[in-house]
């Protein structure tokens, strides 16, 4: 089965991230920056900072909605790589920050996904989900203890959870993402008129 990368009118999360990457001087080329591969375990995708490439695990992506979330999650890492000097390989706090942002902004913790996981009804549910997903993502890519991953997430959580760039807000669904994209496109227009 071949899934679409979510480019164009299909997915507003992806559209905004691609525009933000281009605006930041890191335009994404579909042929160069995406790789579809079979992956071990149940990982759905990853961002390879050494090649600036998003790897999509074709054997673990279930449907188009899942594909869109994976692409969005990994594009958030690519955006962070573009705009900040992220030390992916030796600074676990940098990795933790990008994982918090990706879990928070990609739809990973949407109510629909959490109900599908049979996890809902908790107080401050979104924050709890973001924290848990960030820790799981760190453990999937680094050979460290759960305690070290939790500590890294706790240390960066507040500032990274509140960093909503390039969305400007937490896009809880596609409608929010469309509004965020419209606002992003209008940012430069507003500032150029001052």
From TrEMBL:
Domain of life from the UniProt record: Eukaryota
InterPro entries recorded: Peptidase_M76_ATP23
Native species: Daubentonia madagascariensis (Aye-aye)
Entry's Gene Ontology molecular function annotations: metal ion binding; metallopeptidase activity
Keywords, comma-separated and alphabetical: Hydrolase, Metal-binding, Metalloprotease, Protease
Biological-process GO terms, alphabetical: proteolysis
Family that this chain belongs to: Belongs to the peptidase M76 family.
This protein's record includes keyword Hydrolase: yes
EC supergroup of this enzyme: hydrolase
Protein's recorded name: Mitochondrial inner membrane protease ATP23
EC number per UniProt: 3.4.24.-
Lineage: Eukaryota, Metazoa, Chordata, Craniata, Vertebrata
């Amino acid at each position: 089965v071949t899934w679409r990368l979510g480019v164009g009118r299909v997915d507003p999360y992806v559209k905004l991230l691609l525009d933000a990457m281009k605006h930041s001087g890191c335009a994404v080329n579909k042929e160069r920056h995406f790789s579809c591969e079979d992956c071990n375990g149940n990982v759905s995708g990853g961002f390879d900072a050494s090649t600036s490439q998003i790897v999509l695990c074709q054997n673990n992506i279930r449907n188009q909605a899942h594909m869109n979330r994976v692409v969005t999650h990994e594009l958030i890492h690519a955006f962070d790589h573009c705009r900040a000097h992220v030390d992916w390989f030796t600074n676990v706090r940098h990795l933790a920050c990008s994982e918090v942002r990706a879990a928070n902004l990609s739809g990973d913790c949407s109510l629909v996904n959490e109900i599908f996981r049979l996890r809902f009804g908790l107080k401050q549910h979104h924050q709890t989900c973001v924290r848990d997903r960030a820790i799981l993502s760190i453990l999937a890519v680094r050979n460290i203890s759960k305690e070290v991953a939790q500590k890294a997430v706790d240390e960066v959580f507040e500032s990274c959870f509140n960093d909503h760039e390039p969305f400007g807000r937490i896009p809880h669904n596609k409608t929010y993402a469309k509004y965020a994209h419209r606002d992003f496109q209008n940012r430069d227009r507003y500032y150029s008129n001052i």
